[in-house]
Structure formats: C-alpha cells, structure tokens
Design brief:
5 strands, Rossmann fold, alpha/beta
Length: 212
C-alpha cells in the first residue's frame, strides 16, 4: 500500500487544524494508518522550537525565525514524515514548506531564491502529494482569532502581526495554488466546520483511494 503525504495550509483561523483532526478520524475508520503531525512541533525537538518561535514575549529576529523553522522541518522530515510515508502510512501535516513561502517569504520579505534554497535543504526534496489551502478573508481570520483569545487560547507572535502581514500571507497561498494546480487545492473555509469538512472529503477520499 502506497504512503500518502497531505499538507494543510492557510491563514490563522482558517480551521485547518480542526479539519486535519476530522480527516484523520475518517481515514482511521476506513482502516488507514494515519500519522497526524504539525510544523513546528511534530517531534520532541520541534516541540521545544515551537515554544521559542511562537512565544509572544520572545523577540525573534526574522532570519533566526526562518532558520529555526528550517531546523524544525529538517528534523520532522527525517525523523517522522519520510519514514512514515515510506512505510505506507497516510501522513497529515498541519503546515509544511508552503508556510515558509507564505509567512517568511511573502510575510517577512525574504527573497524567493533564499527561501527556495532553505526549503530544499530542510526537506531533502520531499514534497506533499496533495496540499489543501484553506482560504479565508483576513477580516474573518482576525475575527476568529479574537474569539479564540477571548476563550483564553494562547496568543502567539504570528497572530499578533498586523492585517497587512496576513494579507500578504493569504495572497502568497493563492499564488502557490495557482502555480501548482496538480498538487494544491483551495478550499473555501468561510462556511461552517461541517461544510468545510464536506469539501475536504470530496477532494481527499478519491485521491487516497486512488493511491491504494
């Protein structure tokens, strides 16, 4: 049975993490071995790096941020993702390399060639088989973020960036999707959780079944 690597991308508040958990449950009910993971934080080392990267009180230089995300990804790919895919599992990752293009490339302004080189080094060339970009307006994204924080969910550094930053990130994701339509699918995340889940199922299930 062939392994499958699917990544979930989108602006904060788009619901991608919830959709990943829902899809993982559906796939397990259908007998597939699923590894649900995230970046940063998919390994023990990554968990410690995540705390440093997203701490709202920590002042992280943009270049240091870019390189720490790359270090997390290098460990993630070699310790978890590649072995799981090669053993025939379905790997679902909450963010991967496209997040670096969107957040550090478009958001922070690093040159495309620098971002591409660092991604290539960290991933060793491992690309997702399928990427779902959960698209949401910036206004809706920020509203959902405010609701999360009102519920005492921890506020992180990226959440705290201004609307212009998040607009650049969203635009970058849409450009990624337009440039790689065979791999990337855009999902309208503006509806209910169940409406979004239905879109995910319509896209993912035929793809996974076709992979054996």
């Amino acid at each position: 049975m062939a392994g499958v690597f699917i990544t979930f991308e989108g602006v904060d508040g788009s619901g991608k993490s919830t959709q990943l958990r829902m899809l993982a449950s559906e796939l397990r009910l259908r007998g597939r071995e699923v590894v649900a993971t995230r970046e940063p934080g998919g390994t023990p080392l990554g968990g410690r790096l995540r705390d440093l990267l997203l701490d709202a009180e920590e002042q992280v230089d943009p270049l240091a941020e870019l390189l720490i995300f790359a270090a997390d990804r290098a460990q993630h790919v070699r310790a978890l993702v590649r072995p799981a895919v090669e053993s025939g599992r379905v790997v679902l990752s909450d963010r991967y390399a496209d997040a670096t293009v969107a957040y550090q490339g478009a958001g922070r302004g690093f040159p495309d060639e620098v971002v591409a080189q660092i991604i290539s080094l960290a991933t060793g060339g491992l690309q997702p088989d399928l990427t779902l970009v959960f698209d949401l307006t910036i206004e809706a994204s920020r509203q959902r973020a405010r609701e999360r924080h009102a519920g005492r969910e921890k506020h992180d550094r990226l959440d705290a960036e201004d609307a212009a930053f998040h607009a650049r990130v969203r635009d970058a994701y849409l450009k990624i999707a337009a440039s790689d339509p065979d791999r990337v699918r855009v999902i309208d995340a503006g509806g209910s959780v169940q409406e979004t889940h239905s879109q995910v199922m319509r896209l993912v299930m035929p793809f996974v079944e076709a992979r054996g």
